[in-house]
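Supplementary Note 3. Input sequence used for the single-chain structure prediction.
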Amino acid sequence: MDFRNDTVLITGASRGIGRHLAKTYASQGAEVILTDVDAEHGRQLLGELHNEGAEAFFYECDVSSHEAIVQLFSQIKDTHQVTILINNAGISKFTPLDELTVEAWDEVINTNLRSVFLFSKAIAEIWRENKTPGRIVNIASTRAFMSEPDSEAYAASKGGIISLTHALAASLSQYDVRVNAISPGWIAAKNYESLRPKDHEQHLSNRVGFPEDVAKACFYLTDKENGFVTGENITVDGGMTRKMIYHH
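The predicted structure, written as discrete structure tokens, is reproduced below.
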């Protein structure tokens, strides 16, 4: 897949899956725009990418803030021709329901879900004005389909992302914009060697996921030639949500 003529905007890019996406798109020749509230790790990644010869830029942005997003797009609108948006930013805070405040709920929803709406709306306006075909990938989660206790805000945000994805795909199809989602399962971005055999055995793939498993799905969904897939959610979880588990 050739991304040499693409500019990829990635939210939550400084660590975890976002960091790996930035490095893998850069390795395929894309210009990469990193955004994150974590400026220290964001600039550290920027330095690494520059040392590897990549075209990369970092903009500090709190995606839970509407004002910060507006400011970000005012900075990049005339300097970068974004062709791919990956809404990856997210936080997970599990709180007992009787302790979950409205403020804590809003923090998760605004960071994980509202940011997807705001970034997608902003980039779609630019693409519509410029008549530019675009591709959006939203990072959801298998926790949209299954839950542990105390995960109400996170589960709601990720379920909302999947619904928002197919709604955006319908609304933006007239502008040649494709919108899809990926729902990762257990992805170990670090300390993979510390995982236990029973961690891997929970998966039909017999292993916990790597960040590159998500990157490969992103490549598929953002490939210029892959124009027939839109409004879809791809689960990348090694079959974990399909495995029936009994305790004997």
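Residues 63 and 69 are 6 Å apart (CA to CA). The chain has a mean pLDDT of 94.
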